[in-house]
């Protein structure tokens, strides 16, 4: 895909970004007593994005952060050089009055300079979104952000974890290099115990996904000391988790709001999924030239079949027999 081609998004991305759009104003209301509030987007994405099923443009996370009302007083968008300039120009056009900066480069390298530049705001409530694809962020980067603000409550972290993408990468041609990346994501080789358990068929693929997500939650809670962590699995139509959104906060209000939004996201997921399946079917039929030959008989979205999300505690992975 060329760097100017809009990125195509599936319904699970829209669902994730809807959580973000609802959480950011709630965060800013909860933190309104603070004069400064900081948003850090470690993987801010491209200027243009479209929905795969409809081709409609969709706002990415930087636009959502800048549109939040109330909003953050400082907004930091990190992105690789190939996308950064276009993103910056687009955001300046759309939000000429908002305070933000686009930091071009590998966020794991630029993070030290960024946090140093904002040191005078280190008491400010801070929210960091880590929208990676597989294993791009380093544990050390998460640790630096969590330590940036130690006054009262640490920076909140919202991290995409995709064991499906990690499993795929470990089977790829650059296997060793990819495995080193995953070790940098966790900051340890411990994840290889989970990997070996899957390869030896001691755990199922579903258990692998749950253990890989639990491991990062365990580290966030037990190493970085976060008071609350949650996961919400985002499901593909075959009910496999495409990825999980992992949240870490010290603040009871953050915990309460995110629980509420995770339940709403789980409630709307079946209808979004059904609509995406239906549109894909319509497009297949249209492409095959059969449209009009017969009436489409497609089921209505299954809104009664809500999968309600329930919070679950993390567990100590070393208690597993295969560890
Ligand atoms: C899933 S996309 C992010 C989408 C974005 N949050 C949005 O809502 O539009 C992941 C982005 O991370 C960027 N990226 C990957 N590795 C990175 C790194 N080490 N530092 C900064 N950005 C990175 C990619 O260029 C890509 O645009």
Tags for this entry?
323 residues, alpha/beta, Rossmann fold, seven-stranded mixed β-sheet, two-stranded parallel sheet, globular, binds S-adenosylmethionine
Model description:
With 323 residues, the protein is an alpha/beta fold. It has one domain (7-319): 3-Layer(aba) Sandwich (Rossmann fold), CATH 3.40.50. 45% of the residues lie in helices and 15% in strands. It has helices at 11-30, 61-67, 81-94, 107-117, 139-148, 163-171, 175-186, 191-199, 205-222, 252-287; strands at 7-9, 38-41, 49-51, 74-79, 100-104, 126-130, 156-161, 228-235, 241-249. Strands 5-4-2-6-7-9-8 form a 7-stranded mixed beta sheet, with helices on both faces. α4 (107-117) runs parallel beside α5 (139-148) and α8 runs antiparallel to α9. The chain is globular. The structure holds S-adenosylmethionine.
**Rg from alpha-carbon coordinates:** 20 Å
Round the mean pLDDT to the nearest integer and report it.
Answer: 88
**What low-confidence regions span 5 or more consecutive residues with pLDDT below 50?**
291-307
Q: State the name of the first-level CATH class.
A: Alpha Beta
């Amino acid at each position: 895909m060329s760097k100017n081609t809009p990125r195509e998004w599936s319904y699970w991305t829209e669902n994730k970004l809807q959580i973000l759009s609802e959480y950011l104003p709630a965060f800013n209301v909860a933190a309104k007593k603070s004069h400064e509030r900081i948003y850090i987007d470690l993987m801010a994405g491209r200027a243009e994005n479209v929905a795969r099923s409809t081709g409609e443009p969709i706002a990415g996370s930087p636009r959502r952060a800048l549109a939040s009302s109330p909003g953050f007083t400082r907004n930091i968008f990190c992105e690789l050089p190939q996308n950064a300039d276009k993103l910056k120009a687009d955001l300046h056009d759309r939000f000429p009055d908002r305070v933000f900066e686009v930091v071009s480069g590998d966020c794991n390298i630029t993070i030290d300079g960024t946090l140093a530049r904002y040191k005078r705001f280190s008491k400010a409530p801070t929210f960091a979104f880590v929208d990676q694809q597989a294993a791009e962020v380093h544990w050390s980067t998460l640790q630096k952000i969590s330590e940036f603000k130690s006054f009262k409550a640490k920076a909140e972290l919202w991290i995409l974890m995709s064991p499906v993408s990690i499993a795929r990468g470990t089977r790829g041609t650059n296997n060793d290099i990819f495995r080193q990346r995953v070790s940098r994501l966790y900051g340890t080789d411990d994840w290889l115990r989970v990997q070996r358990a899957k390869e030896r068929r001691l755990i199922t693929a579903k258990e692998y996904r749950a253990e890989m997500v639990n491991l990062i939650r365990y580290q966030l809670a037990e190493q970085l000391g976060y008071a609350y962590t949650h996961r919400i699995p985002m499901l593909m139509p075959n009910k496999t988790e495409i990825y999980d959104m992992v949240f870490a906060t010290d603040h009871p209000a953050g915990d309460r709001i995110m629980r509420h939004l995770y339940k709403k996201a789980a409630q709307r997921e079946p209808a979004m999924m059904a609509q995406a399946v239906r549109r894909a079917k319509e497009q297949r039929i249209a492409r095959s030239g059969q449209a009009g030959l017969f009436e489409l008989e497609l089921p209505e979205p299954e809104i009664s079949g809500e999968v309600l999300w329930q919070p679950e505690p993390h567990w100590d992975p070393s208690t597993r027999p295969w560890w």
